[in-house]
Please model this.
Amino acid sequence: MVKAFRNMLMAVTFVGVAGCNMFWNFMNDYMACGLALAASVTAGLCVGRILIERSRREMIRLHGADWDAAEK
Model:
């Protein structure tokens, strides 16, 4: 579910940034694709990090601060 949400957000970000360039012709098409790809990857990483931190906080809340001590 998290992976699907992240991929959807990355696709929407790419289409949004590339679409803005297509409609208003801000810059060269190759630069626009590079910028859209960078924005897409950044959005995916940020969302992934946010969801992982949220799940860690939830596990700490449910099971205490040492819930992952056995793994270390």
Observations:
- The chain has a mean pLDDT of 83.
- Helices lie at 2-24, 29-63.
- Residues 29-63 form the longest helix (35 residues).
